[in-house]
Design a protein that fits this description.
Layout (H helix, E strand, L loop, with lengths): L4 H13 L12 H9 L9 E5 L4 H14 L4 E4 L11 E3 L2 E2 L2 H21 L6 H15 L4 E5 L16 E4 L7 H4 L3 H8 L8 E4 L4 H14 L2 E4 L5 E8 L2 E7 L4 E7 L4 H17 L40 H9 L8 E4 L3 E4 L5 H14 L5 E5 L7 H8 L5 E4 L10 H12 L4 E3 L3 H23 L6 E5 L2 H11 L26
Amino acid sequence: MTADPQDRLAAAEQAILARRPEQSIEPSLDRIAALTELLGDPQRAYPVIHLTGTNGKTSTARMIDTLLRARGLRTGLFTSPHLSSMRERICVDGELLSAERFADAYDEVLPYAELVDASQPARLSFFEMLTAMAFAVFADAPVDVAVIEVGVGGTWDCTNVADGAVAVVTPISIDHTRYLGSTIPAIAGDKAGIIKPGSVAVLAQQPLEAAEVLLRRVAEVGATVAREGLEFGVVSRELAVGGQLLGLRGLLGGYEEVFLPLFGAHQAGNAACALAAVEAFAGAATWDAAAGGALAGGALAGGAPAGGEAVGRGGQPGALGDELVRQAFSRMSSPGRLEVVRRSPVVLVDAAHNPAGMAAAVAALSESFTFSELVAVIAVSEDKDVPGILDELEPLAAQLIVTRNSSARSMEPGKLADLAVSVFGADRVIEAARLDDAIEIAARLADESDAGQARGAGLPGSAAVLVTGSVVTAGDARRLLTGGPAEHPAPGQAGEGPLASGPPGLP
């Protein structure tokens, strides 16, 4: 009798989870290189767009994938960590692997993994196993291009056995200091390792000290660079119902009235990076060797490439076209990133897990929503800069419910409460042992706030709940409130334009 696909999936997931944890990193490419060699180096069967950075990697990777599929290419997408299901990490043509295909991929890789386990000082890890599975699945599909997000860092991340034709570096800040170092230059130096000879490096706006390290790497390996704010970027941005309306300058010219159904300036920057990455991959850019390997185009204020006329979008090989760009961006989604998962009261989940990520989320909420009061629920990993995260959240949250998530790395609520009290004050902090209890308390407080406003002003209130602190927290909250994995929608399934219904509280 054939085993049930769900049973096979559960068995595969348990076996992968039994390996060295994702956060336990042994800096070496030897294990993954040995495994991919036994598999026939599947990561070399297709071109790769490789992404690293501290924040925004998954959102940018999803945007790149959607743009590529809009151009008619078959894509593989590998992202991490997952919100609800391990299957979310490996997508082909915008679809999660089925339970059966995921289990098949595990079974196909396992015999080779066991050979590597027996020959290496340390067994293959959870993340190394999933990376090898993704490479193999994409080769089997086959895909036209794979969009690969690193796990941690770059140089020693196991995805770095693939050589990206385009390397995207999203904004760099302090995180994962145990593995990457405690300074911006050290972290940037590790992440710069995905920039390979002959590639195109697409760089988001960076702290100066990170930019210096990245540009040094570009020069050392003979790569070509495209920089946000110089060769490409966001030239205009305004709020729209359900998202924002952007003017973008790509590597070929401008794209106006691009609706993005995501919130915040950080997502606009991610969109610009995604557009530049796809244009660079398509070979649609004009290069200026005299400019030291930078893309011709100059500062965003100028409409034409340096030393020449503006490049027409329709006349270049691989040009994307205005309508394709508008349609693709209107379909973007990024589950767990300021995602509305419930109404009445409104509950949003966000995966912010470091101070820079929380600052971006707070700025987006302040800009895009008009909630009368925000009650925040937070569960965060023990190894994060928790005081820094709390400092960023404090100005926005009227009350804070501290709890834990399902990860073994989650900080205990009592310890988190002590830290929160020092930032918020004792009268604004409530401790809950479980996330479901914390969300229930927060929803009740929001409802009570709304009731009080209605009595006082004769109008319904608009208090809301934000659940945040880590990807695990966002995933746990999504499972509690929506169920099911975070699907990556195929074209046509997500927001259809600026007139789509927006969440309550949006101006």
